[in-house]
Amino acid sequence: AILAANYNRHLISELKSSKARPLLVFSSGSLLYGNAENAFSKDSPIKPISYARQYYRGEIPLIRASENNEYPVLLFRLPWLLGPGSWFKWFYMQPALKHNAIPLFGDGINRMEIIDMRDAASLMLLFASKGFKGVCNICPEQAITQADFAALVSGIYDVKVLDYAEVFTGRLERESVEAFK
Fold first, then answer.
1. What is the pTM assigned to this prediction?
2. pLDDT tens-place string over residues 4-27
């Protein structure tokens, strides 16, 4: 996190000395707001959980540059991304194919907002082209519980839903489990 913050401070410094001063578009996740029942707004308090604790510390120079009008930054808070290379492959596709099971974390009542990576990229380009700056939360109209999501995925792969400890027989990092609970 300290290294990311240093890199981002250096990036802002370099961009500020640029004649072009291009808009800096940066994305992060909704885990920065912690778990909640309702959608988040840009004014929601930051309560990072899981991996977002580390990400947030790295973002602080970008947030400050935006808030102080020091440099134009468009900071996206994105829901869970679906697509190649995303969390979905590791937490759902691989277990379905390897263990014939989909993991359920805790009681499954936590709510997840999900967006396809291509849709997220399209929205980021659209907002950047319109000159938006500051924090932008991308919140789908509906959230789904983790239990309902696991059930949908299990139906697609025709596998059962099991407690995550039965699917991931090795120990998962605390941050991984926390992200889903």
1. 0.81
2. 999 999 999 999 999 999 999 999
What's the CA gap between 65 and 71, in Å, rounded?
5
DSSP for residue 45: P
Residue matched to tokens 């930054």: 73
CA-based end-to-end distance of the chain: 23
CB atoms within 10 A of CB 52: 23
pLDDT digits (tens, 9 = 90+) for 105-157: 888 888 888 889 999 999 999 999 999 999 888 877 778 888 999 999 999 99
C-alpha angle 29-88-92 in degrees, rounded to nearest 5: 140
Neighbours of 123 (CB within 10 A): 15
pLDDT in tens, 41-91: 667 788 888 888 888 899 999 999 999 999 999 999 888 888 888 888 888
Beta carbons of 4 and 58 less than 8 angstroms apart: yes
DSSP code per residue over 111-123: EE-EEEHHHHHHH
Eight-class DSSP state of 30:
G
Q: Are 39 and 77 in contact (CB under 8 A)?
A: no
Strand partners, 137: 77
